Design the sequence.
């Protein structure tokens, strides 16, 4: 086991060198995994180097024209290899691990980009993607631009005069059960940045809430992703749920729906997301 | 029937080695080997590290699931029985979920000892533990009551489901997604380690189960009559339970939950060659292996370069076939 | 070479169903076990067949049942249950062949067909068991048992037929057919033990009768000696009157003042 870890570390070291050599040739040899990672790659003007992307990479529009290698946790070893990539830049958690092992054995460099839900995390992501693509200069500039825009957006949001609104992020309402976001989630991070308060802070991650817990959270606004499928409860359906119907949000009819990748991606567009969410929460 | 199935299995097996998202060709690779030329790295990895272990795993898991279904149906005298029914799969699933969620809490020596195999090993242990518990509950004075076992299996399944629910509640976002995908079943994580871990267990189980044909035929007349005609009923039940636990535990451990093979394959064979378990058990292993490799080929190529979880393919193909069989057979099947 | 039961007790939990029973059955004769519901006769035949744990001893041709391997017992006796269900759609002939699974008599390929013919089911071989009538199913089961113990006497001694209410669900013609086959088996030197519900069939076919009541033997002996007004009335707890078929010693049984009893029930 220890030997294997050592081997992996070595692979990383040598792989990093190889990547720099390859990058200078400026050919298509990269696969991007994770919507935020793909966004950053395009923001670094490196989209032309992409061979393929994963299912969650839906922005910008050019990304959607690339072949889809499937969901990031369910990659197909042969599917990925069929593009003969030399580098995979991936958000945290790509798998399954057996497939990653095979890809590494096939000399595919694998750069894992750390995840996080604040300004610092975004900077680290961009830095890591820039390092993996061997464009540290561009990455430094993008980091600085993104950081400035985000700081400005957060400052503007913080200047809101009104009392901070309590926001409940609802991931899904399947079967009448409210799946809500606690702390240490993208939703928690973006709500804070946009000048709101996460109505649920008793737990970490996404958990189903009981009807009473929703009442007790007393959200002023419900925040959802504007996706189709099982997430697409209409406002009427949403407010008809017993859990929601007793909340201030139901009384005032306040629902905010935003694109999931924009809202939770924590990438170059997060400043836009903060501004958009802030305006939606506090309409003038 | 054995012969036809074996020939079909070999053909499908070879075909599955030639099919994939990359353009690596089995034929040209073999020609290179014959010529004494070296294979490219890509050819070696795709054929030897991806397609071959996947084929081996598909053959073994398919055989294990179909054989387990046929044995369970004989043991419980019920053509709808399945390892899923008596909690063996649920127990294996609970083991896997426990491993996924609590992996961070495992002591260092354990993590070092099993490493990446933590989830499969836990699934295997879960399947075994649930079978042993089930057996304890339903055996009195050396006699196993099938009715009690069926009820205990339902209770065990519910318990495993509830515990899994608790674990899902305390799991974080990323673990939750792992759990969802694990539950769908896949051969996508195939490698030689898995083949060598599960292979011997499954092969021994399948061979031992093949010897149960006479005994399960006797059990079809009822346990009392089976004993009256000279069969050692307790030995048959012990052997059946242990082989199913071993084969199912190993299969679930390496591939997650793959449904319908265990029910549909024995049913199809009974339509063709009748209920006699002597040919049925061998044919079920062959047809199960054949169908799972076919299903995996579909899973691999239908949305390439991505792939479907194979559990979805078997459910989509298996559920309608199963309903059709029920409609055709309702007069013949004595439930 | 007998079946001897000595000081036999069988318990279900704390309840004693058979309490210190003694009797002996000899080959060449049909022994009927009669008695009211709950008297322990079904439990007795289950214990003899090795289905239940027991205290005391049950010895078949010199072997204690509890110590015998299933296969050895199967070579000595066949068992016809009251009713049988079948889990899968086997053909009638397959059911008979399964009776030969453990190897007893399996060397005779055509024995299953001969057994089917013996119970009058020639031509039924490839019919599905589940599609047969109750009477036909019971005859298939009898064919299965006969195939298992085909020769009533072998070099190792007599063989035995254990019949648990073999004709309860059958019409009178099939009752007579099956009882005749059982009696022929006994007359050829085999032993037959049958739990019987119908006292008149018992009178017609039994060589010996064991009358049970409350887990004990109330009387044993020839039908003409055992089937008396006093014994049967005591065993069944109602007034019974035993008569004899004219010009024979065959007893037949009617309730005392049958018409009055019948009208009282209405």
Sequence:
């Amino acid at each position: 086991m220890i030997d294997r870890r050592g081997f992996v570390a070595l692979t990383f070291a040598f792989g990093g060198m190889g990547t720099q050599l390859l990058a200078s040739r400026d050919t298509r040899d990269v696969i991007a995994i994770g919507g935020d990672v793909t966004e950053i790659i395009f923001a670094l003007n490196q989209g032309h180097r992409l061979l393929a992307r994963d299912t969650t990479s839906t922005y910008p529009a050019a990304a959607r024209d690339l072949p889809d290698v499937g969901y990031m946790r369910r990659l197909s070893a042969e599917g990925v290899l069929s593009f003969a990539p030399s580098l995979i830049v991936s958000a945290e958690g790509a798998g399954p691990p057996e497939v990653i092992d095979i890809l590494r054995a096939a000399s595919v460099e694998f750069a894992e980009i750390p995840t996080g839900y604040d300004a610092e995390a975004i900077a680290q992501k961009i830095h890591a993607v820039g390092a993996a693509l061997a464009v540290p200069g561009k990455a430094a500039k993008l980091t600085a631009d993104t950081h400035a825009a985000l700081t400005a957006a957060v400052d503007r949001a913080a200047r809101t005069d009104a009392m901070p609104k309590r926001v409940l992020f609802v991931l899904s309402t399947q079967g009448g059960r409210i799946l809500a976001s606690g702390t240490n989630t993208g939703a928690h991070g973006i709500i804070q940045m946009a000048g709101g308060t996460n109505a649920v802070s008793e737990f970490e991650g996404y958990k189903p809430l009981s009807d009473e817990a929703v009442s007790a959270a007393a959200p002023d606004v419900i925040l959802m992703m504007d996706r189709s499928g099982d997430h697409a409860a209409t406002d009427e359906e949403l407010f008809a749920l017993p859990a929601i119907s007793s909340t201030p949000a139901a009384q005032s009819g306040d629902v905010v729906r935003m694109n999931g990748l924009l809202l939770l991606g924590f990438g170059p567009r997060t400043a836009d997301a903060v501004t958009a969410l802030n305006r939606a929460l506090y309409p003038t | 029937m054995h012969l036809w199935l074996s020939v079909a299995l070999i053909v499908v097996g070879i075909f599955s080695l030639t099919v994939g998202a990359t353009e690596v060709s089995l034929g040209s690779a073999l020609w290179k080997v014959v010529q004494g030329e070296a294979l490219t790295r890509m050819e070696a990895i795709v054929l030897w590290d991806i397609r071959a272990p996947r084929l081996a795993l598909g053959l073994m898991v398919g055989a294990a699931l179909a054989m387990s279904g046929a044995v369970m149906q004989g043991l419980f005298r019920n053509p709808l029985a399945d390892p899923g029914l008596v909690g063996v799969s649920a127990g294996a699933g609970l083991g896997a979920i426990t491993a996924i969620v609590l992996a961070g809490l495992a002591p260092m020596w354990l993590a070092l000892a099993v490493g990446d195999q933590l989830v499969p090993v836990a699934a295997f242990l879960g399947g075994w533990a649930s079978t042993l518990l089930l057996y304890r509950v339903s055996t009195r004075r050396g006699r196993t009551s099938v009715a009690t076992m069926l009820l205990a299996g339902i209770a065990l399944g519910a318990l495993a489901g509830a515990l899994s629910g608790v674990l899902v509640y305390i799991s974080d976002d990323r673990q939750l997604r792992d759990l969802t995908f694990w539950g769908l079943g896949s051969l996508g994580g195939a490698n030689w380690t898995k083949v060598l871990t599960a292979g011997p267990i499954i092969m021994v189980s399948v061979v031992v189960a093949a010897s149960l044909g006479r005994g399960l035929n006797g059990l079809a007349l009822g346990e009392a009559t089976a004993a009256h005609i000279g069969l050692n009923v307790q030995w048959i039940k012990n052997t059946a339970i242990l082989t199913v636990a071993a084969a199912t535990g190993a299969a679930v451990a390496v591939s997650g939950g793959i449904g319908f093979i265990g029910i549909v394959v024995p049913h199809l064979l009974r339509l063709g060659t009748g209920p006699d378990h002597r040919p049925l058990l061998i044919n079920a292993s062959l047809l199960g292996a054949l169908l799972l490799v076919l299903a995996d080929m579909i899973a691999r190529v239908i949305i390439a370069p991505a792939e479907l979880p194979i559990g979805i393919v078997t459910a989509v193909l298996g559920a309608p076939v199963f309903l059709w069989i029920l409609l055709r057979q309702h007069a013949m099947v004595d439930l | 070479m007998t079946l001897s039961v000595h000081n036999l007790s069988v318990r279900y939990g704390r309840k004693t169903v058979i309490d210190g029973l003694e009797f002996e059955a000899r080959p060449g004769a049909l022994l009927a076990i009669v008695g009211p519901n709950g008297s322990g006769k079904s439990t007795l035949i289950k214990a003899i067949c090795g289905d239940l744990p027991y205290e005391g001893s049950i010895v078949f041709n010199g072997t204690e049942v509890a110590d015998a391997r299933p296969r050895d017992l199967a070579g000595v006796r066949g068992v016809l249950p009251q009713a049988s269900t079948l889990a899968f759609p086997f053909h009638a002939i397959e059911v008979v062949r399964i009776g030969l699974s453990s190897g007893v008599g399996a060397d005779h390929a055509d024995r299953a067909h001969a057994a089917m013919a013996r119970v009058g089911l020639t031509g039924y071989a490839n019919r599905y068991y589940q599609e047969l009538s109750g009477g036909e199913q019971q005859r298939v089961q009898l064919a299965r048992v006969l195939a298992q113990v085909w020769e009533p006497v072998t070099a190792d001694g007599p063989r035995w037929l254990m019949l648990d209410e073999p004709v309860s669900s059958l019409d009178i013609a099939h009752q007579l057919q099956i009882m005749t086959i059982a009696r022929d088996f006994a007359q050829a030197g085999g032993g037959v033990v049958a739990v019987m519900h119908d006292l008149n069939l018992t009178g017609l076919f039994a060589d010996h009768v064991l009358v049970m009541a409350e887990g004990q033997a109330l009387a044993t002996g020839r039908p003409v000696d055992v089937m008396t007004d006093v014994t049967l009335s005591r065993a069944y707890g109602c007034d019974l009157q035993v008569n004899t078929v004219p010009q024979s010693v065959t007893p037949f049984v009617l309730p005392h003042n049958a018409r009055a009893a019948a009208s009282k029930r209405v």
